[in-house]
């Protein structure tokens, strides 16, 4: 019996000691740590605080800011246009470069009775029907005539640019081909292991020269060769000579197009302008005619070896003689010079621009590199 009384006393004593220790812990504050031993909360500290050290995340934020990368890193204020803008009521066929006969009817085609002939060249036609016969396939054109199915159908590119809810604070661009990024400017530097592909969108925070080349900072310790990117530098001031605050801007060096309304960027995309010696002429122009569809043809060589014929070119906006902004369906080289002077856009982008633009709107064409000649004597009327 005495043993059990002793055991109960020991248990009660232990509980009293534990409760006293807990109460002491609640009322006694820990000793103040020495100055400089506390890491500051992540943030931007222009002056070193007295009660913490801006190291760790804060130091990383400061390092990024020195490179021009903001904290936090925000996405572009952009969104994709309506995919339905890519839809057009035309189907296209690339005629063999040797040319082809035209037939008034399918029966004439089957019996090889041509009424006319499409001369050799770079030829695309739009068709309405296809017929397969024992004599081969035939395509009916929109004017009712028929041609032999000697060539290939055209696939409509579906690339589209970006719409903007506000003007971005930084440059941005589209990657033009498969490439990897580097941890520092230069091909001798380590790779990041990240791969980029055509039409990937990147933000650009800094440009720096290295190894005789320009490199673009697209993220923390991540650089791309500028030749791999079609870049847009947002400009919100009116080009010289303009009277209204809405305009279309074409950068020949970057092969990009930007649209401004009330001095704010509202749309941007990549284009193909004129290839040497058929440059797109720099200058300030105005849209003087809009056509929902247009047939374009011509040749510049004396022997007509560069003859072209393109039916139903969609969403055409003329701004400098025969030079126009328009949709294209005959190549996939957006981001590189390709045309005879016109500014080629994807079908969807040309459709959006056609809906936005008015006759009289300004088109400002420029080349910040200075490589495009400005002598008017070097420019003819232009063509697609």
CATH class of the largest domain: Mainly Beta
Largest sheet: 9 strands, mixed
Overall helicity: 10-25%
Strand content: 35-45%
Shape: elongated
Mean pLDDT: 88
CATH fold field value of the largest domain: L,D-transpeptidase catalytic domain-like
Task: Write a brief caption for the model.
This protein is mainly β. The protein has four helices and 26 strands. Strands 2, 5, 6, 7, 8, 22, 23, 24 and 25 form a nine-stranded mixed beta sheet that branches. Strands 1-9-20-19-18-26-21 form a seven-stranded mixed beta sheet, with no helix packed on it.
List key phrases describing it.
about 375 residues; mainly beta; SH3 type barrels; 4 domains; nine-stranded mixed beta sheet; 4 helices; 26 strands
Can you characterise this structure?
With 384 residues, the chain is mainly β. It folds into four domains: 41-73, no CATH class; 85-153; 170-229, SH3 type barrels (Roll); 232-378, L,D-transpeptidase catalytic domain-like (Beta Barrel), CATH 2.40.440. It contains four helices and 26 strands. The strands form six sheets. Strands 2, 5, 6, 7, 8, 22, 23, 24 and 25 form a nine-stranded mixed beta sheet that branches. Strands 1-9-20-19-18-26-21 form a seven-stranded mixed beta sheet, with no helix packed on it. A three-stranded antiparallel beta sheet has the order 13-10-17, with no helix packed on it. A hairpin with a 4-residue loop joins strand 18 and strand 19. The radius of gyration is 33 Å and the shape is elongated. The N and C termini lie far apart (112 Å).
